[in-house]
Amino acid sequence: MAKRRSDTPEELVRKVVAGDRRAVARSITLVENQTEEGTELMKRLYPHVGKPMVVGITGSGGSGKSSLIDHLIRKFRKKGQRVAVVAVDPSSPFSGGALLGDRIRFQNHALDEGVYIRSMGSRGYLGGLSRTTSDVVRIMEAMGNDVVIVETLGAGQDEVDIINVAQTCLLVLTPGMGDDIQAMKAGIMEIADLIVLNKADLEGATAILRTLEATLAFGFKGGEGDWRPRVLPTVASAAKADGIQGVDELVDAIEAHHAFLHDTQAIQQVQANRVEQELGLIFKDQLEKYIFKGLKGTGKKREYVRAILDGKTDPYSVVEEVLGEFLK
Amino acid sequence: MAKRRSDTPEELVRKVVAGDRRAVARSITLVENQTEEGTELMKRLYPHVGKPMVVGITGSGGSGKSSLIDHLIRKFRKKGQRVAVVAVDPSSPFSGGALLGDRIRFQNHALDEGVYIRSMGSRGYLGGLSRTTSDVVRIMEAMGNDVVIVETLGAGQDEVDIINVAQTCLLVLTPGMGDDIQAMKAGIMEIADLIVLNKADLEGATAILRTLEATLAFGFKGGEGDWRPRVLPTVASAAKADGIQGVDELVDAIEAHHAFLHDTQAIQQVQANRVEQELGLIFKDQLEKYIFKGLKGTGKKREYVRAILDGKTDPYSVVEEVLGEFLK
Question: What fold does the segment set A49-264 form as a domain?
Answer without folding.
Answer: Rossmann fold (3.40.50)
